[in-house]
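Propose amino acids for all 443 sites.
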C-alpha cells in the first residue's frame, strides 16, 4: 500500500505544471518605423497576402499595409491571446475527471487492540465517461468557433487597413487641391488689397474677398486635421507610434465583383464567411451541451473498491456503488438553461445571416449611386475644363478679369474635390463589399 501511494504521488508530481513569473512592463514604446516590424507572409489568412512580396523600401501599397496590420495589430494580438485562453478552456472541458484515492488509519486510544486500523479505497464517477463524447464534441466546436472568430477579426482588420490607406491617400490629394485654392486666393487677395489702396475697388469688396479666403483656409485646415486623424488611426492599427511616417503608394484601380459573381457568392455565403461559420460552430457546441444536460437527468453513478482492517486485525475487501436519486432536481434547471441558450444561438445565426444579406444589398445599391455620381461629376469636370480652356484661348486681353479667371480655376478645383471624394467612397466601399460577400480567398 505504501508503494502504491508513493507511486501515485510521484506520477502526480511529474505531471504538475510549474510556475513561471511574467512581470508587467512598466514602460512600453511603440516602433517608430516600419523597418522595426516583422511580417511572416506564410501566416497571412488570405492567399493574396501570402503570395505578395513585402518590400517596404519602395513604399507601402494597400497589400503591404494589410500584411502589416494582420501581423502587428495590437487588437489582433489580444484576440490571439484570447484564442489561447479559449483553446485551453476547450482542452480542459475535454479532460476526464481523475479517480479518487482515499486512505485512513486509526489508532485505538480507549482499550487494548491487536492492531491499528486502516482503510484504503479507489473510486470513480462513471457519469463523466457517459457524457465524455458530448463534452469533447462541445469542446472541439468551441475551439473551432474561436478560430473562425479570429479569422473574421483578421478580415475586418484587412478591410479597416485598406479603408484607412485609401482615406490617407485621397485626403492627401484633396489637401493638395485645397492648398492650391488657398494659394490662388491669397495671391488674388493681395492684388485686391493693392487695388483698394489705389481706390480702384471698395473696402466692402475687399471684405467680401477676405471672407472667401478665410472660408477656403478653414476647409484646408479641416482637411489637414482629417488627414492627421486618418494617419494616426492607421499607425495605431499597424502598431506604430503616432510619429511614424508612412510612404503610401497610389492605389491601383480595382473593378470589383460583378453581378453574376456576387449572386454566386451570396448563394454560398453561409459556407464561406467566417463569422457565420463561427456561429454555426457555436450552435453545434451548444447543441452538444444541451444533449449532455439531458443525459445528466439520469442517475449519477459512482463506484469504488476499498480494502481495510479494523483494530481486531480483521481484514476486509469492499465494493461500493452510489446512485443519485433523480427525485427533486433531475438536472431540470440546466436542461432549461441549455435549451434556451441553443434557441438563442439559433435565432442569432438567422439574424446575422439576414443582416449580412441586407448589408450586401444596401452596399450594392449605394455602389450604383456612387457610380452614377462619378459619371456625372466626370462629365461636368470635362465640360468645365473645356469651357475654361476655350475662354482662355479665345478671350482678348482684358476680356477676362482676374476675378473671373480665379472663379474658373476654383470651380475646377471644387469639381476635382468632389470627384476625389466619390473615388474615395467607392474604394472604401469596395473593401467592405469584398469582406461581406466573403470575397477573400483563403486557399
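Proposal:
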Amino acid at each position: 500500500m505504501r508503494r502504491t501511494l508513493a507511486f501515485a504521488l510521484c506520477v502526480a508530481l511529474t505531471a504538475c505544471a510549474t510556475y513561471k513569473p511574467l512581470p508587467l512592463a512598466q514602460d512600453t514604446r511603440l516602433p517608430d518605423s516600419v523597418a522595426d516590424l516583422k511580417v511572416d507572409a506564410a501566416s497571412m489568412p488570405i492567399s493574396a497576402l501570402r503570395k505578395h512580396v513585402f518590400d517596404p523600401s519602395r513604399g507601402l501599397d494597400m497589400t503591404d499595409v494589410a500584411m502589416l496590420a494582420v501581423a502587428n495589430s495590437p487588437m489582433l494580438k489580444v484576440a490571439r491571446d484570447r484564442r489561447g485562453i479559449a483553446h485551453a478552456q476547450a482542452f480542459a472541458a475535454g479532460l476526464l475527471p481523475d479517480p479518487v484515492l482515499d486512505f485512513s488509519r486509526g489508532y485505538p486510544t480507549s482499550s487494548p487492540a491487536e492492531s491499528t486500523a486502516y482503510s484504503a479505497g479507489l473510486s470513480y464517477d462513471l457519469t463523466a465517461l457517459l457524457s465524455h463524447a458530448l463534452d469533447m464534441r462541445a469542446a472541439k466546436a468551441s475551439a473551432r468557433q474561436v478560430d473562425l472568430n479570429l479569422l473574421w477579426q483578421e478580415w475586418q482588420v484587412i478591410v479597416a487597413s485598406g479603408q484607412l490607406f485609401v482615406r490617407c491617400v485621397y485626403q492627401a490629394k484633396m489637401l493638395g487641391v485645397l492648398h492650391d485654392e488657398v494659394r490662388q486666393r491669397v495671391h488674388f487677395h493681395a492684388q485686391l488689397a493693392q487695388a483698394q489702396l489705389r481706390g480702384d475697388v471698395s473696402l466692402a469688396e475687399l471684405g467680401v474677398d477676405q471672407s472667401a479666403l478665410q472660408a477656403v483656409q478653414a476647409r484646408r485646415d479641416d482637411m489637414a486635421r482629417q488627414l492627421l486623424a486618418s494617419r494616426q488611426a492607421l499607425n495605431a492599427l499597424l502598431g506604430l507610434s503616432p510619429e511614424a511616417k508612412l510612404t503610401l503608394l497610389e492605389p491601383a484601380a480595382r473593378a470589383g465583383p460583378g453581378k453574376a459573381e456576387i449572386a454566386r457568392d451570396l448563394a454560398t455565403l453561409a459556407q464561406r464567411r467566417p463569422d457565420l461559420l463561427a456561429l454555426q460552430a457555436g450552435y453545434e457546441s451548444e447543441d452538444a451541451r444541451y444533449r449532455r444536460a439531458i443525459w445528466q437527468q439520469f442517475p449519477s453513478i459512482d463506484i469504488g473498491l476499498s480494502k481495510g482492517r479494523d483494530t481486531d486485525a480483521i481484514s476486509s475487501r469492499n465494493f461500493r456503488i452510489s446512485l443519485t436519486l433523480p427525485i427533486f432536481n433531475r438536472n431540470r434547471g440546466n436542461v432549461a438553461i441549455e435549451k434556451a441558450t441553443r434557441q438563442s444561438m439559433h435565432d442569432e445565426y438567422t439574424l446575422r445571416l439576414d443582416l449580412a444579406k441586407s448589408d450586401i444589398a444596401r452596399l450594392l445599391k449605394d455602389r450604383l449611386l456612387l457610380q452614377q455620381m462619378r459619371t456625372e461629376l466626370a462629365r461636368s469636370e470635362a465640360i468645365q475644363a473645356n469651357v475654361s480652356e476655350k475662354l482662355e484661348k479665345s478671350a482678348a486681353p482684358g476680356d477676362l478679369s482676374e476675378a473671373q479667371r480665379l472663379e474658373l480655376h476654383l470651380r475646377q478645383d471644387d469639381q476635382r474635390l468632389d470627384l476625389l471624394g466619390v473615388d474615395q467612397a467607392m474604394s472604401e466601399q469596395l473593401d467592405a463589399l469584398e469582406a461581406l460577400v466573403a470575397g477573400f480567398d483563403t486557399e
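The radius of gyration is 36 Å. The CA atoms of residues 256 and 338 lie 43 Å apart.
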